[in-house]
Amino acid sequence: KNVVEFGSSFGISTLYLAEGILETNGSIVTTELIDSKAKKAIENFKNAGVDHLIEMRIGDAMETLKGYAEPIDLLFLDGWKDLYLSLFQMLEPNFHSKTIVYVDNAEMHDTKRFLKEIQQTNKYHLTPKHDGKVVIINSK
Ligand SMILES: C[S@@+](CC[C@H](N)C(=O)[O-])C[C@H]1O[C@@H](n2cnc3c(N)ncnc32)[C@H](O)[C@@H]1O
Fold this sequence. Notes:
Elements: E1 2-6, H1 12-24, E2 27-32, H2 35-48, E3 54-58, H3 61-64, E4 74-77, H4 84-91, E5 100-104, H5 109-120, E6 124-129, E7 134-139
Parallel strand pairs: 1-2, 1-4, 2-3, 4-5
Antiparallel strand pairs: 5-7, 6-7
Bound molecules: S-adenosylmethionine (SAM).
């Protein structure tokens, strides 16, 4: 229901997430570093008629999500991979027992390092999907 996305680009993934929250009556906070991409994404949300369900935060997600206070049901990680760990740790206080973290580009070097760190905490189940290109993280 409460979705946070790291890295919206032109908002294609956000539109798929929006399809989900239409069913759950939820909302999305999405983040994009590059102003022109974020503006194009907002235009796409308007054209799809879902802009009222999506909050776009423009700038570095480490800043725009700082102090984020809402519980997170789904965190979608798809921004720069070297920030996955710090962003995850920053938002971890917002997780609950059923939070799902969807990790894209799981086969990339920096993502593998991130996943190794998460595994070592012994707090989470990691489930590979799509030939290892995605990993789903759940609480144990
Ligand atoms: C792979 S693209 C996202 C694709 C999008 N999720 C989709 O599937 O349609 C990664 C995006 O993350 C953005 N990004 C990278 N680092 C970021 C940061 N620190 N804060 C916000 N956005 C960031 C990039 O500008 C880029 O547009």
